[in-house]
UniProtKB/TrEMBL annotation:
<dbReference type="InterPro" id="IPR001872">
    <property type="entry name" value="Peptidase_A8"/>
</dbReference>
<dbReference type="GO" id="GO:0005886">
    <property type="term" value="C:plasma membrane"/>
</dbReference>
<comment type="similarity">
    <text>Belongs to the peptidase A8 family.</text>
</comment>
<keyword id="KW-0064">Aspartyl protease</keyword>
<feature type="compositionally biased region" description="Polar residues">
    <location>
        <begin position="28"/>
        <end position="42"/>
    </location>
</feature>
<keyword id="KW-0378">Hydrolase</keyword>
<comment type="function">
    <text>This protein specifically catalyzes the removal of signal peptides from prolipoproteins.</text>
</comment>
<feature type="transmembrane region" description="Helical">
    <location>
        <begin position="49"/>
        <end position="74"/>
    </location>
</feature>
<dbReference type="GO" id="GO:0004190">
    <property type="term" value="F:aspartic-type endopeptidase activity"/>
</dbReference>
<keyword id="KW-0472">Membrane</keyword>
<feature type="compositionally biased region" description="Low complexity">
    <location>
        <begin position="1"/>
        <end position="15"/>
    </location>
</feature>
<keyword id="KW-1133">Transmembrane helix</keyword>
<feature type="region of interest" description="Disordered">
    <location>
        <begin position="202"/>
        <end position="233"/>
    </location>
</feature>
<feature type="compositionally biased region" description="Basic and acidic residues">
    <location>
        <begin position="205"/>
        <end position="217"/>
    </location>
</feature>
<feature type="compositionally biased region" description="Polar residues">
    <location>
        <begin position="218"/>
        <end position="233"/>
    </location>
</feature>
<keyword id="KW-0812">Transmembrane</keyword>
<feature type="transmembrane region" description="Helical">
    <location>
        <begin position="168"/>
        <end position="194"/>
    </location>
</feature>
Length: 233
């Protein structure tokens, strides 16, 4: 028999004393960890975008429909009583801001509304709080509703008068968009006073409970660091 020259490589794996790195030791190579830590980004961001968009579109549609109905059914100077003289539907063309404030500065208010809409859209990708998404959605939907009136209604672009039709007691006549803007703005002020930040954090370093994925990620990271620091038994 003819012996084979040289040595044939062994198919058995060589033993190694080096430990296999775990996903916690190398988060960049982990594919099964928390999705909030993946390279795809924080999964809560699209959700906040969606909440803001749904709220804004809902407010805008409600505002447009109610204005169309008011113009079609309510005669100027002929209010419709709902609860006596306290709650009425009264058609008014408003050249000012919400609740008939700043009358006569229509084009300035139009530019301000454009800036508000652009600012919310520009920075909404940084949203990390569901409450900020709700508040900004109300403000955005209301601003768009009145902005459409200022652009497309008489007497002309940037000078159009807003349709108001709801009257409650001594309060100035208003519409759905006005209510949304005021409620949203009040909500944002309350959030700020209580330390709820735009990105979902709390003032002083505490995390906002609106972002459970981020909280779970921080908890898992803290547990891993504690395990590393614990002495061997």
């Amino acid at each position: 028999m003819t012996s084979e020259k040289g040595s044939r490589p062994s198919s058995e794996p060589r033993p190694s004393n080096e430990p296999t790195p775990s996903p916690a030791d190398n988060p960049a190579d982990s594919t099964s960890g928390n999705p909030a830590d993946s390279t795809s980004g924080n999964p809560t961001r699209p959700r906040m975008w969606l909440i803001l968009l749904v709220v804004a579109v809902t407010v805008l549609i409600a505002d447009l429909i109610t204005k169309i109905v008011a113009v079609a059914l309510i005669e100027p100077g002929d209010p419709v009583e709902i609860i006596g003289d306290t709650v009425t539907f009264k058609l008014v063309r408003n050249s000012g801001a919400a609740f008939s404030m700043a009358t006569g500065y229509t084009w300035i208010l139009t530019l301000i509304a454009l800036a508000v809409v652009a600012g919310i859209i520009r920075y909404s990708h940084r949203l990390g709080s569901i409450w900020w998404a709700l508040g900004l959605g109300l403000v955005l939907g209301g601003a768009l509703g009145n902005l459409i009136d200022r652009i497309f209604r008489a007497p002309g672009p940037l000078r159009g008068h807003v349709v108001d039709f709801m009257s409650v007691g001594w309060w100035p006549v208003f519409n759905v968009a006005d209510s949304a803007v005021v409620c949203g703005a009040i909500g944002l002020v309350v959030l700020t006073l209580f330390g709820f930040e735009f990105d979902g954090t709390r003032s002083g370093g505490a995390k906002d409970a609106d972002d459970p994925a981020r909280t779970d990620s921080d908890t898992a990271t803290g547990s891993t660091q504690s395990d590393r620091q614990a002495p061997d038994a």
